Amino acid sequence: MDENERSLIERFCLLCAVVLVTFLPNFAMATEWDTLSEAQQGVLQRHQEGWSALPEQQRVIRERMQRFNALPPERKKALRQ
Q1: What is the span of the domain harbouring residue 61?
Q2: Burial classification of residue 69, based on how many CB atoms lie within 10 Å of its CB (0-12 exposed, 13-18 middle, 19 or more buried)
Q3: Which DSSP string corresponds to the chain?
Q4: Half-sphere exposure of 75 (CA within 13 A, CB side)
């Protein structure tokens, strides 16, 4: 692999990381079950089996997103930079 290919791959990886860090937290906002209304719980209950069937890799990603969302704003900002 020559230097130009390596540089292109590095830039692509950096772009992917920026996109993920920028947009994923918005999709991964966790809400406590008890704070949901009865109607919301009913809708989500029907989908619980699907969540339980998620592959291990997707569960790991979800857990990482939840940990990131729990961080203080200044720590999130530092990680994004």
Answers
A1: 3-80
A2: middle
A3: --HHHHHHHHHHHHHHHHHHHHHHHHH-----GGGS-HHHHHHHHTTHHHHHT--HHHHHHHHHHHHHHTS-HHHHHHHH-
A4: 6
Longest CA–CA span in the chain (Å) reads 59
pLDDT single digits (tens) 4-63: 777 778 888 777 776 666 666 555 556 677 788 888 888 777 777 776 777 888 878 888
Pairwise CA distance, residues 50 & 61, whole Å: 16
Measured CA to CA, the distance from residue 64 to residue 74 in angstroms comes to 18
The total number of structural domains that make up the chain: 1
